[in-house]
Known about the structure:
Largest sheet: 9 strands, mixed
Structural class: alpha+beta
CATH topology of the largest domain: Rossmann fold
CATH architecture of the largest domain: 3-Layer(aba) Sandwich
Number of helices: 6
Distance between the termini: 55 Å
Low-confidence stretches: none
Oligomer: single chain
Order of helices and strands: EHEHEEEHEHEEEEHEEEEEHE
Number of strands: 16
CATH class of the largest domain: Alpha Beta
Mean pLDDT: 95
Radius of gyration: 20 Å
Amino acid sequence: MSRIITLTTDFGTKDGYAGAVKGVISSINPEAQIVDISHQVPARNILSGAFCLLNAAPFYPQGTIHVAVVDPGVGGSRRPILVQTKRYCLVGPDNGIFDLVLEKDKVSCFIHLTNLDHFLGRVSATFHGRDIFAPVAAYLSLGVKPDEFGVQIKKINKLSFPLVTKSAKKIVGEIIHIDNFGNLVSNVTWFELKQAKESKIKIKNRVIPKISTTFSDVKSGEIVAYLGSSNLLEVGVNLGNAARTLRAEVGDKIEIQL
């Protein structure tokens, strides 16, 4: 049975961890279509993993199985889970990594993965991606029903997502992700920007005079603020790297002066 299984992890491509996950899936279901969303999520950064999944998952066809493993609590008290939604199945740790993508879909059920029959033999305390999540995804792709993997639970853990604060004079958000180009992605949404279209942006003591449409609205090497493809305020450098230019990091504040 052919079915798409996507992988989003912080495993990188140096050590063979991602390859092991793919090997398990292919051994159980050789016809599964395995698609890498990313293995370059910053290590242990659940928020970046959630953002990465949000950017890609909604564009896959109905019935896709999304495996996401950014799992600093592996082997501890956090539960391994399966989430069935109207469109997809999501498999991974119960640490909030699915929180953002679930805002775009309707949940049918949450399953705490407990059925050892669908795990990979003896489970390593440090590699649930290989020993739990990969085989569960593979068996799902073969048609095993979600409720056969464990017991239903009423809720799962929420992501610790930074809040945007507002006053009469400014909106304050923060950088939640830095992409491969060095663009700084904030948690300030298009809705909040509607009231600030002509406002100045301040980040790392640098002031950007306006919100532009795209990079080429400014000269090469200049800093630009714009609404990104995820409908969030971003800061970049035309033909450059904003993270390096501004020495910016995830968690840095960004202000929109009203």
